[in-house]
Design brief:
Layout: H1 15-26, H2 30-138, H3 146-249, E1 266-269, E2 282-285, E3 291-293, E4 298-306, E5 310-316, E6 321-331, E7 338-339, E8 344-351, E9 356-365, E10 368-370
Antiparallel strand pairs: 1-2, 2-9, 3-8, 4-5, 4-7, 5-6, 6-8, 6-9, 8-9, 9-10
Helix pairs in contact: 2-3
C-alpha cells in the first residue's frame, strides 16, 4: 500500500505541536506583563503617600510662616511706636536746644552789661580812690567846711551804692544764667539717656526683625522647594494615572471586531481548527515587502524561527491573549520590547499557501486558538 504524497506547502511534522511548545515556554512571561498594572498601582500609592507627606510639611511650613509673619507684625508695631517716641524726644530736645541758644544770647547780653558796669565801677573807683586816700591821710583837715564834707560824703556814698547795686544785678544775672545752664545740661542728659534707651530698644527690634526675616526666608525657601517637589509628585501621579487608565482601556477583549489587520491583503486560508489539515489561524496573501504590524498593544515574547512557520513573532497582549505572525522575511522588534498598536514588527515573506508573499496570523486565548476573523475589523 502506497502513502499519498504530502503537499509541498504542508510540512511532514506538526507546526501546531511546535507552536504549542513555544507558547508553553513563553507563557511564563505573562505574569510579569500582567504584574505591570499592579506595579503601576503600587507606584501610584507610593506617590500619593509622598504627596500627602509633602502636603503636610508644606501646610506646617505655611503655618510657621504665618506665625512668623504675625510676630513680624508685632515687631513692626513696636518699631513704629519706638520711632514715634524717638521723634517726640528729638522734638523736645530741639526745643531745649533752642532755649539753650536763647539763654546763651541772653547770657552774652548780660555779660556785656556786666562788663560795662565793671568798667563804670572802675571809673568810679578811679575817681574815688584819690579822694578816699586823701581823706585817710588828711582826715578832717581836708574838708573846707562841714557842708563840703557832707556833700563829698553823700556823693561818695551814692557812687558806692550805685556800684553795689550794679554788682548785685550782675551777680543775680550770673546766678540765673548758671541755673539755666545747669537745667539745660540736666535736660540734655535726660534726653540723651532716653534716646540711648530708645535706640537700644530700636536696635534690639531691628535685630529681631532681621532674625525673623531671615527665618521667614528660610521657611519660604523650604516651602517653595517642597511645593516644587509636590508639583513633580503630582505630575508623576498624573502620568501614572494616565498609564493605569491607558492599560485599563487597553483590554484586548474590548476590541473584538475592531482590531486592525496585521497586513494589507486577501485571505487565502481560513480558520479551520477541525479541518484536515487543521488550521488555527488565517493566511493572508500580500504584496512583496509589505509591512506587518501589531494588531494591539503588547510585548514581544518570541522572536525566532519555528520549523514549518519561518520567522515568527509572538506578542502577549495581557489577559492571556496572544497574537502570532509567521512567514516573515525580517523582524524589526526584539524580545521583551513593548510595542504599540499598529507598530511595524517586520515584513511579509514567502507564504506557501499564498504561493507567494503573505503572512500566517493567529490569535490565541489561554493558548487556545480563536478565529481572527471575528476579532479583526470587517474587510473593506
Amino acid at each position: 500500500m502506497t502513502r499519498s504524497p504530502v503537499p509541498a506547502f504542508i510540512p511532514v511534522y506538526s507546526p501546531a505541536h511546535s507552536l504549542a511548545l513555544v507558547l508553553a515556554l513563553v507563557l511564563g512571561l505573562a505574569p510579569a506583563a500582567l504584574a505591570q498594572s499592579g506595579q503601576i498601582e503600587k507606584a501610584l500609592q507610593r506617590e500619593h503617600q509622598k504627596a500627602a507627606e509633602h502636603k503636610g510639611v508644606v501646610r506646617q511650613l505655611a503655618e510657621r510662616e504665618k506665625a512668623l509673619q504675625g510676630r513680624l507684625t508685632v515687631i513692626e508695631a513696636r518699631m513704629q511706636a519706638a520711632e514715634a517716641r524717638i521723634e517726640k524726644q528729638e522734638a523736645a530736645l530741639e526745643l531745649i536746644r533752642q532755649e539753650e541758644t536763647r539763654y546763651a544770647q541772653l547770657y552774652d547780653a548780660v555779660r556785656v552789661k556786666r562788663e560795662q558796669a565793671v568798667r563804670e565801677l572802675r571809673r568810679l573807683l578811679d575817681l574815688l580812690w584819690p579822694i578816699s586816700a586823701q581823706g585817710m591821710h588828711e582826715g578832717s583837715r581836708s574838708a573846707d567846711s562841714w557842708d563840703a564834707a557832707d556833700r563829698r560824703f553823700q556823693w561818695t556814698g551814692a557812687v558806692y551804692a550805685k556800684t553795689r547795686a550794679a554788682l548785685e544785678i550782675v551777680r543775680r544775672q550770673e546766678q540765673e544764667l548758671a541755673g539755666v545752664l545747669a537745667r539745660q545740661k540736666e535736660l540734655e542728659a535726660q534726653v540723651d539717656q532716653q534716646l540711648a534707651v530708645i535706640n537700644a530698644d530700636k536696635d534690639a527690634l531691628l535685630r529681631d526683625r532681621l532674625a525673623v526675616n531671615a527665618r521667614m526666608g528660610q521657611v519660604n525657601t523650604q516651602r517653595q522647594d517642597l511645593e516644587g517637589e509636590l508639583q513633580m509628585i503630582l505630575k508623576t501621579i498624573q502620568q501614572l494615572n494616565y498609564q493605569l487608565s491607558s492599560q485599563r482601556s487597553r483590554k484586548f477583549d474590548s476590541y473584538k471586531a475592531a482590531l486592525p489587520w496585521p497586513v494589507a491583503g486577501r485571505v487565502v486560508a481560513s480558520f479551520s481548527p477541525e479541518g484536515r489539515p487543521s488550521r488555527r489561524g488565517i493566511g493572508i496573501a500580500t504584496g512583496e515587502g509589505s509591512t506587518v504590524r501589531s494588531v494591539f498593544w503588547g510585548k514581544v515574547v518570541h522572536n525566532d524561527v519555528l520549523r514549518g512557520l519561518g520567522k515568527v513573532v509572538i506578542l502577549f497582549h495581557g489577559g492571556d491573549y496572544y497574537s502570532l505572525y509567521a512567514y516573515l522575511s525580517d523582524v524589526t522588534v526584539q524580545p521583551g520590547q513593548e510595542v504599540e498598536k499598529d507598530e511595524p514588527i517586520g515584513h511579509a515573506g514567502y507564504y506557501p499557501e499564498a504561493h507567494g508573499n503573505g503572512v500566517y496570523f493567529e490569535l490565541r486565548f489561554h493558548q487556545k486558538p480563536i478565529n481572527p476573523l471575528l476579532w479583526l475589523m470587517p474587510a473593506q
